[in-house]
Amino acid sequence: MNEQSIIHVEQLTKRFGDFTAVDAISFEVQRGEIFGFLGANGAGKTTAMRMLCGLSMPTSGKAFVAGFDVYKQTEGLKRNIGYMSQKFSLYEDLTIKENIRFYAGIYGKSDAFIKDKTARLLHQLHLEDQANKLVGSLPPGWKQKLAFSVAVFHEPRIVFLDEPTGGVDPVTRREFWNLIYEAAATGITVFVTTHYMDEAEYCNRVTIMVDGRIEALDTPSALKQTYNASSMNEVFLQLARKAKRNGDEVKTA
Amino acid sequence: MRTLRFLLEKEFRQIFRNPAILRVIFVVPILQLLLLPWAADYEVRNIKLAVIDHDHSSYTRQMISKITSSGYFLLDQYTNSYKEALVDIEKNRADIILEIPAHFEKDLTRENEAIVLLSIDAINGVKAGLGASYLQSIIHDFNNEVRSKWIQLPRFNPEVNIDIRPSNWYNPLMNYKFFMVPGILVMLVTIVGSFLTCLNIVKEKEVGTIEQINVTPIKKYHFILGKLIPFWFLGIIILSIGLFIAWLLYSIVPVGSLFTIYVFAAVYLLAVLGFGLLISSFASSQQQAMLITFFLFMVFILLGGLYTPIESMPIWAQWFTRFNPVTYFIEVMRLVVLKGSDLSDITRHIITVFGFAIVLNTWAIISYRKRSS
Amino acid sequence: MKQFLSFVRKEFHHILRDRQTLLILLGMPIALIMIFGFALTTEVKNARFAVLDFSKDNATREITNEMETSRYFDLAAEIHGYNEIEDIFHKGKAKLILVFPPSFESQLQHVHNPQIQIIADASDPNVATTLTNYAGNIIMDFQNRYNQERKYPYTIQTRVRMLYNPQQKGTYSFVPGVISMILMLVCTMMTAITVVREKETGTMEVLLVSPVSPIKVIVAKAVPYLIISIINIISILLLSYFVLEVPIRGSLFLLMSESILFTITCLSFGLLISTATDSQMMAMFISLTGLFLPTIMLSGFLFPIENMPKALQVASNIFPARWFYQVVRAVMIKGLPLAAVWKETVILGGMAVMLLLASLKNFKTRLA
Predict the structure, then answer these.
(1) Which of C:146-175 have CB within 8 Å of B?
(2) PROSITE patterns of this UniProt entry (chain C) (predicted)?
(3) Is A113 a member of any domain?
(4) Mean pLDDT of chain B
(5) Chain A neighbours, 3+ Cβ pairs < 8 A
(6) pTM reported for the whole predicted model
(7) Domain membership of residue C139 as a residue range
(8) What is the CATH number of the domain that holds A185?
(9) pLDDT for the residue numbered C212
């Protein structure tokens, strides 16, 4: 295993009955990297990510996240990761402050840490006035940014983002990516799935999944060169044409 | 322990912010205790009587007035024919037809024997049976009065008359509310306890927040405890409100100590909540959870001995009641509230229900999966 | 129409895909019929009783024996003093105690007026009354037999005929009740919850912007439950006819039509609830406390309506189940024609129309 790699995956496979959602994928993610995971709906992105987070049991293959085995060492693994799911998953009937406090609390952070960091975070997001408002009353873009901030609040080594910008306007998406860069700057590795090809350009390296398999893995510029394309969109379309699976067949595990 | 504190903080905040839960906690007990005890009265009285008197004698008038003055029967009306009276039964205007044949008085005094005919709407078999026996005993009394007029008593004594003296302990006035109210309290605590816990967790599944929890290093038993404790408190609060209303409206004060009730309820709630948790780990939507909980608790409550006595159930159902926590609580309530039993009288109940609590909660912890297979 | 059918098809897919729910929806009536039919009888059987016999002679032994061999009682204990009674009741060992005074038999033979005391544990007054009555009847039988040697003058004989239900089976009154309960549950609660669920998840808005009229969208949600209800009615009737041996004396067609009418009333009620609430929990709470409990309590199938306070008797009139219960009893058990239940039918129909109009109106104002 490479010294620098924080995620190490070898021949990882997930089957649901006859259906192979993730088909023997292998890759490494370097420390501090922003690693993009691209693919059409149903390509197996979410399933792969759920296995890496300890939410879904792999059928076969190996995977280590932050040095922890996803089969056996899930508790240690979970202490070192953050996760933001496709579904918005903060409590709508709790306030911003209460949500932060709750999630930080169950990661075992001290009261002083929580208090101090909450103040900084609220300032950074310009949410000081809304700190005691119910999360349910926030506009969608804000919810998304808040969910990300909560996912990295406990300072994990890796954060997994599952289509974090779904249904968000371009301006907010831009702001969201600024947050990702800020987090990466503090040394957090970012593992992000998306189907927005412009976002792929923001990543250090991207993987393109088609029908549960990894079809390409490189930096965006190298990929464009290889496939002789002017944008990631073109690269993706060239690869995705080979797909046999129907888009909506498997969305979640 | 710190994790648990954060979990509890969050649950309590959510509970007190949810108007639906607050309504369930406060409105339901009040509404139910206000209404149900009045309705739940099985006692058979106000039996509607249709009379066909073909004789129109002074004896028949005496007999009918004796029947109507007993307090059990309401005279619906006199009809001239059985056919007319049957229409009354069909339309639920009458429950019993009392038909007195012509020459009743003459037969009784001259032939030494007269007949009256009773036709009873027996769809409700129990009511019919009791109605018949009340009516027969009134007629029997009337018969004795008639006899004593015709025969000198000393000379006519060989008929044995056993004097039956019934007495009713613990509830001498036969107040149905003393019996129903504790039972309704059990229902309340059971339904609210299991429903709320179950729905709470399933809602987190539906909304997706549970996944966010699953990806944290939180321990399974922390999560379960974090759900159990708040709803345990809610259960105790509902019980207290219920006991208070029982005292306020129906002056029901337990003969035994409140402490005994609370001790049992504390253990009982653990079992019921465990049940709710268990269901939540199998259900994927709130609708499904509600339906399952509702169905199971309907069975539990119906077979809990509140509505019908356990002794009269068939063996398989009696076996079932032994594994039904509701049975134990209803029995304990009756023992403590009406008979004044103390902790030592109900140790067996406490131990059994504690056993259920352990099994159900362990099962719930095992079947709650942080990771899908 | 075609659009409408495609909506109905979608609702069916939802229901058919959730096997567990479907299983419960269809299995519940069967389980309830079995429970009510076999396990729940208000008739008391095998009640434990104890004897405190200060006399111990042939007569007391005979009465005790009669009690024990009757299907109503089981002898649990013989006790020897009044002080033991408290313990027996406290531990729940017996529900009734028979006390024979000393020299019972000689009293019987010479004074003709012996005494028996029946002490009942009245913490359950229903059981106490019933048991005291049963025990009284057994003693009366004994007395009558004892008296039978000679015929007495001036005797009034009563001849009793039990109409509709000669064996006085409890199932005759439970089956109509269970039908009303199930229909209420499936139609009202399930409909209300499914509609509210679409509101909660936001898919309702998607449906409402489709070219189909909103009323059709809502009605389409109710159709599958109507069909499930019809299946349930059929399975209840089959079970009660073949397994519980409850007769269907009236016209089957009339019975089914009335049931469908009641189903529609319940569905409209469910729709009304769904237009007035936003969370599944609230919908369930309203259907449960506002409808289901009153149905059980006030429709007359568990507790006699005529015993309730006047206010509750009046209140019971607004619950559709109260009327439907009367109809089922009349048609199914008594075998009466429509002419006998036209009033109830009109009331149910009127309720259905009013509820439907109210929910549609409510629905429109919400959209506007």
Answers:
(1) 146-147, 150-170, 172-173
(2) ABC_TM2
(3) yes
(4) 83
(5) B
(6) 0.78
(7) 47-147
(8) 3.40.50.300
(9) 67
Asked if residue A44 belongs to a domain, the reply is yes
Which of A47, A55, A72, A106 would you mutate first to test chain B, the one with the most B CBs within 10 A?
A106
Q: Which chains touch C (3 or more CB pairs under 8 A)?
A: B
Q: Is C202 on the interface with B (CB under 8 A)?
A: no
Interface mutation vs chain B, best among C22, C281, C312, C345, most B CBs within 10 Å: C281
Q: Which residues span the domain enclosing B82? A: 47-150
Q: Do chains A and C touch (3 or more CB pairs under 8 A)?
A: no
User: What local confidence, expressed as pLDDT, does residue B329 receive?
Assistant: 92
Res B229 pLDDT > 80: yes
Q: What is the mean pLDDT of residues A80-99?
A: 87
pLDDT digits over C302-327, tens only? Answer: 777 777 778 878 888 888 888 898 89
Share of chain A above pLDDT 70, in %: 95
Q: Which of B13, B216, B370 lies at the smallest CB-CB distance from A106?
A: B216
Q: How many angstroms separate the CA of residue B179 from the nearest CA in chain C?
A: 6
Q: What is the distance between the alpha carbons of residues C78 and C96, in angstroms, rounded to a whole number?
A: 12
User: How far A91 CA lies from chain B's nearest CA (Å)?
Assistant: 7
Is B234 in the same domain as B306? yes
Structural domain including A97 reads 32-55+78-240
Would you state the pLDDT for residue A250?
A: 37
Average pLDDT rounded to a whole number, residues B262-282: 92
* Domain endpoint, select from B150, B182, B209: B150
